[in-house]
């Protein structure tokens, strides 16, 4: 795995650089695949995408090739303030012409178990129709770009510290009913899927995440050499790029 760390003077500079990084990847995949599969997190990631919906990118990106997926979702209606879909729609998707059929939201009418099963089945269909690639290395779906955020406790997606879901290595999509961060019921992609991505951007602005960034990039480990934090299990099959601002990087 190739890993790169980018540290910016401000969150504004981070957002500018992130937009260029994503636009360049969109152009790369347009040329080489004619499709661009992008996984969105919730949280502050969406705010960090704000430069993409402004000129020059809003006009220059070929949005018709984009296919949007969710890294994780809360089991709430799409209109609920806690919905990652609503966050992404209000802050990003409503502002760019991605074809609505290419936006794969999680079914908000189902239970946590049902929604996870349904999303995994939908991903399988999209693998069959060749929208999503399969990793020849892992056998798991391989998204082109996975846009990850990280919580102050080092969680990514809905994969929390010391939770048994960290070790899920068969399912593509699973569910949690005891999330330590509300709301408790969520569905999430699993680590084998996250780590099969071609490109992962770990977008981490703000002082609240500094301790976790310090542990993760400082190589902190537990007694058996095990990763202390979920974020330390992130390892892109292709390239992992950290986008940090000065505050987030202050403990490095
Ligand atoms: O609950 C969640 O938290 C993480 C991190 O959120 P942030 O607000 O600290 O950026 C987010 O990436 C995930 O998608 C979300 O469901």
From TrEMBL:
GO biological process entries: carbohydrate metabolic process; pentose-phosphate shunt
UniProt KW keywords: Hydrolase
Entry's Gene Ontology cellular component terms: cytoplasm
Reaction(s) this enzyme catalyzes, per UniProt: 6-phospho-D-glucono-1,5-lactone + H2O = 6-phospho-D-gluconate + H(+)
Domain Glucosamine/galactosamine-6-phosphate isomerase: 10-242
Coiled coil: none
Signal peptide annotation: none
MF-aspect GO terms: 6-phosphogluconolactonase activity
Enzyme Commission number, as recorded: 3.1.1.31
Cross-referenced Gene3D superfamilies: 3.40.50.1360
Lineage top rank: taxon: Eukaryota
UniProt xrefs under Pfam families: Glucosamine_iso
Pathway in which the depicted protein is active: Carbohydrate degradation; pentose phosphate pathway; D-ribulose 5-phosphate from D-glucose 6-phosphate (oxidative stage): step 2/3
CDD domains: 6PGL
NCBIfam families attached to this UniProt entry: pgl
PANTHER family: 6-PHOSPHOGLUCONOLACTONASE, 6-PHOSPHOGLUCONOLACTONASE 3, CHLOROPLASTIC
Family designation: Belongs to the glucosamine/galactosamine-6-phosphate isomerase family. 6-phosphogluconolactonase subfamily.
Protein name in the entry: Probable 6-phosphogluconolactonase
């Amino acid at each position: 795995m190739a890993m790169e760390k980018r540290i910016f003077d401000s969150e504004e500079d981070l957002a500018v650089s992130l937009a260029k990084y994503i636009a360049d990847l969109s152009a790369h995949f347009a040329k080489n695949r004619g499709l661009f599969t992008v996984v969105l997190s919730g949280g502050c990631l969406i705010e960090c995408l704000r430069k993409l919906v402004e000129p020059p990118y809003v006009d220059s990106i070929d949005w018709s090739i984009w296919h949007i997926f969710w890294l994780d979702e809360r089991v709430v209606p799409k209109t609920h303030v806690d919905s990652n879909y609503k966050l992404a729609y209000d802050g990003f998707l409503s502002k760019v012409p991605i074809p609505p059929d290419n936006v794969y939201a999680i079914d908000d009418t189902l239970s946590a178990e049902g929604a996870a099963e349904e999303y995994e089945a939908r991903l399988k269909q999209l693998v069959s129709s060749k929208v999503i690639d399969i990793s020849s290395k892992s056998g798991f779906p391989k998204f082109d770009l996975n846009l990850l955020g990280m919580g102050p406790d080092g969680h990514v997606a809905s994969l929390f510290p010391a939770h048994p879901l960290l070790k899920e290595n068969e399912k593509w999509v699973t569910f949690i009913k005891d999330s330590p961060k509300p709301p408790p019921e969520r569905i999430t992609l699993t680590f084998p899927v996250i780590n099969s991505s071609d490109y992962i951007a770990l977008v981490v602005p703000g002082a609240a995440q500094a301790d976790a960034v310090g542990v993760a990039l400082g190589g902190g480990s537990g007694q058996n050499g095990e990763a202390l934090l979920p974020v330390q299990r992130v390892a892109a099959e292709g390239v992992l790029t950290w986008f940090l601002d000065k505050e987030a990087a202050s403990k490095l």
